Amino acid sequence: MVTVRFGMASDRLTRICRAGPGHVPALADLQLRTALAAYDGLFPPDAPRPTVEGLVASWSAMVADPEVSVFAVADGLDPDRAAPGLLGCVAARPDPGSPGEGEITRLYVRPDSWGRGLGRRLLDVALADRVVRGCGRAGLWVLADNHQGRAFYERLGWRLDPTRVLHGSGLRPLEVRYTRRLSHRPR
Question: For residue 65, how many other CB atoms are within 10 A of its CB?
């Protein structure tokens, strides 16, 4: 079990732990709420919204897959129980398009917790996990018009890979790829 403890400005103990099946409903709820806030205006108005049911199925598959690492953060998180009040989560896996590399597939931090350093800490844990698994590089996809997300990754040393772009069509917007070299200290 991986548990990382750190204090926040409010002096509350905050923990990052490996998420398990008991966290799935909270992970799905967190992704849905965060995505609706973070992606507001980035998808066409008639694009279908994600559903809790679909997200529960997706997160269930991720936490059951031994190749995927899912970490969650909450104040006083008990790693052996479900945590309905998650503050953030991250998922990482082997990159299906680049053997030997890792990929961050999801990173969500509750909007009321933005600016607290939780996203950076979650990324640090996920990237350290990928290093332990033998990855020397990592990548991630971000919506091209998600300027806040792109600026966040760029501040943390991620670089745009202009050779890899997922062109949007219909109701799916353009996505761009960011990569970074990994070391024993991801930051």
Answer: 12
Q: What is the dihedral of CA 53, 24, 15, 77, to 10 degrees?
A: 100
Question: Model-level pTM greater than 0.90?
Answer: no
72: three-class secondary structure by DSSP: strand
Domain ranges of the chain: 3-135
CATH architecture of 3-135: 3-Layer(aba) Sandwich (3.40)
State how far the Cα of 157 lies from the Cα of 175, in Å rounded to an integer. Answer: 19
The token pair that represents 25 in the structure block: 């409903």
- Tell me the mean pLDDT in the region 127-146: 94
